[in-house]
Every structure is written in structure tokens, then in C-alpha cells.
Design brief:
Blueprint lengths: L1 H4 L3 H4 L2 E5 L12 H14 L3 E4 L11 E4 H7 L6 E3 L2 E3 H16 L13 E3 L2 E4 L9 E6 L2 E2 L5 E5 L14 E5 H12 L10 E3 L3
Parallel strand pairs: 2-10, 7-12
Antiparallel strand pairs: 1-3, 2-6, 4-11, 5-10, 7-8, 8-9
Length: about 200
């Protein structure tokens, strides 16, 4: 490993910024790492929604310096470009329904994913025990329900949204490098978890 790592060591150890917040992934609904990434994507692309997949790999980043390697470590294994597709409101709601079923289906053999995908710029309310396709109570943007036929822009680098066969919205820019540029311009990073996911118990 050391032999293969050596040519990239100087670049990977470059300090690109700092964080005042512990950046971590260890929760079903949200985490500070994913909050930061989705917020950054949304601001970089000036999109309605920022999105990153709900996965749990990637090391936690302690308050202090952020290196280039830390950013790549937080990304999926194969770096991809930043995409900004546009989806109708009804399609976004169906995506939430799909992933909630993957996480909450009472049949363990039908649970195909462990986390809700991470997002910013919108708010979702749902019932855990609702039937498949009817768990979402509502998805809002700026306090207003999504308009089913309206298009909304989503800044993303992968996950369930990437399965939509679009390839349109490809910025041609590597998502990890976009994050690195954002960190350089906005350090120190401060992240606060938002209340964009609400589970309704009743």
C-alpha cells in the first residue's frame, strides 16, 4: 500500500481548510458530514436541493484541519462529477417513498437500504408505520408543499437519484474537487443539523 500511496501522498496531505464541528456519519436520518456535503452542493450549484447518498463509510473528521484525503475519504469509492438534474415535485416525493420503504419495510428481506438519503433545502414529514407508497405526509420547499408538476433542481454526486437515466445536468466538474474549493473559501466549517426530517408518531 505504501508504494501505491507514495506518488499521491503530498497532494492527499494538503490542508484545504478546517472545521469547528465534528463531522461524522452514524445515524439513520442525518449526520453532520452529510449535512455539510448536501448544503455545500446546494450552494455551489445554486440548486433547490442538495443531495448525497445515505451511507455510513468514511472516517469522522475531528475539529481542526481538513486534508484533501479527508474529503475523498468522505466520498463514494469512485469519484463522480457534480450533477444538477431537474425533477418534478411528484418524482421527488416518489423517491422519498422509495427510500423510506427500503429503510422501514416491516419485512427484513425487503429492506434494501439502511439510511434515508441525505438532503438539504427541503423538508420531509413521514409516518414510519404507513403502508408502502403512503408513508410521506408531505415534502416542502421554503415552507410550501412541492408542486407536483414543477421542476426542482437537485445538486448531487450519486445515490438513488443517479439511477434516473438523465446524464443531463452533468457539470463536468469532479464533486470532491468542488467540495475542496468550497472548504477553501468557507473555512472554518460550522455545521448545525437541521429539522428537515420529521417522523410523525401519530
Amino acid at each position: 500500500m505504501a508504494k501505491h500511496y507514495a506518488p499521491y501522498e503530498k497532494s492527499l496531505n494538503e490542508v484545504v481548510g478546517s472545521t469547528e464541528t465534528l463531522l461524522y456519519r452514524r445515524d439513520t436520518w442525518k449526520s453532520t458530514t452529510d449535512q455539510f456535503i448536501s448544503d455545500a452542493y446546494r450552494k455551489i450549484a445554486d440548486a433547490d436541493m442538495g443531495h448525497c447518498p445515505g451511507w455510513r463509510f468514511g472516517s469522522s473528521i475531528l475539529p481542526g484541519e481538513i486534508r484533501r484525503e479527508d474529503v475523498y475519504d468522505a466520498m463514494k469509492g469512485t469519484p463522480s462529477n457534480l450533477f444538477v438534474p431537474k425533477l418534478r415535485g411528484k418524482r421527488i416525493v416518489s423517491l422519498f417513498e422509495d427510500i423510506l420503504d427500503n429503510v422501514l419495510n416491516p419485512d427484513p428481506l425487503l429492506r434494501l437500504g439502511g439510511d434515508l438519503f441525505r438532503f438539504s433545502g427541503m423538508r420531509v414529514r413521514f409516518r414510519r408505520k404507513g403502508p408502502k407508497g403512503r408513508r410521506v405526509i408531505g415534502v416542502e420547499k421554503d415552507g410550501k408543499p412541492l408542486v407536483p408538476g414543477r421542476f426542482y433542481s437537485i445538486a448531487t454526486s450519486g445515490g438513488r437519484i443517479q439511477r434516473i437515466p438523465f446524464r443531463m445536468g452533468d457539470t463536468g466538474r469532479v464533486a470532491a474537487e468542488e467540495l475542496i474549493g468550497f472548504i477553501k473559501e468557507n473555512s472554518p466549517i460550522r455545521v448545525g443539523l437541521t429539522d428537515n426530517v420529521e417522523e410523525v408518531k401519530a
